[in-house]
Design a protein that fits this description.
By secondary structure, the protein is of the alpha/beta class. The chain has a single domain, classed as TIM Barrel, CATH 3.20.20.150. The chain is built from 10 helices and 12 strands. β6, α5 and β7 form a beta-alpha-beta unit. The longest helix has 21 residues. It starts with 7 loop residues before the first strand and ends with a helix.
Length: about 300
Amino acid sequence: MKNTRRSFIRIAGAASVGSLVLPQIACKSDGAAVVKKGADAAKVAMDMAKPSLDAFGIQLYTLRDVIPADPKGTLKKVADMGFNQIEGYDGAQGMFWDMGHKNFKTYINDLGLDMVSSHCNIRENFEEKAGQAAEIGMKYLICPYIGPQKSMDDWKKVTDRFNECGAICKKEGIRFAYHNHAYSFEAFSGQIPHDFIMDNTDPDTVDHEMDIYWVVTGGADPIEYLKKYPNRFRLCHVKDRMKDAGDERAATCTLGTGIIDFPSILKVAQENGMQYYIMEQERYDNTTPMDCAQDGANYLKNIVFA
């Protein structure tokens, strides 16, 4: 993939289709959808068609300002919102919120929740984490962030570590994945680091979690990557981007109110091997984390793929 920093995305109004210059956000040159089309058309489609997702989850980092004080109560509310899957993160109380992995599993099972994956620190006790994840039936451990690297040799060390983690997870009967940020889609030493990561990790042991927000923010096209690397992206973060955000990076918003065309992107994702759809939000303008979670659940309950 060439590093073409396209700066035009299509945004359709309620009555007509227009265009808007938004630096840093890309779409395919052949017109594949990256941002959503007219809200009226989407509403009509939703009214006429059956919702497309039977299961969907939430990354608990969305609730990072709430859950530490009351993990059990927060998880109960998550289940009541309509989520049936959760993705954890490796915070101060660990992936299992100081309950121990088996007790945590029992508790969420009683709520009707399935912990399909967790982000974790892959540099500390990874073998132990993989064993615990496997014991309670999790599907994935995920590296959430590796950071920009200073050389292609450093990127090679990153992919080597990912392959090591993949082998550890395979031994335990689970999978390993990497969650992208914007930096891996920005040209470096004549290459796109994310292409290097995809091409140099073992598809038998290493999958990928596409954070759609960060792909778009990094100037790439989610649809293009889904088609270029079929069956490599098995999980995704369904995270929306504010309208008129421009170059701002920290611009997440309530799911369904931003610019990203999830019905089109998720349809292509499903056609190319996507298995898990996980909402995430990191910014809460004029709202709260819990309200955003409920809004996200409602959106995913009713989404109809284009």
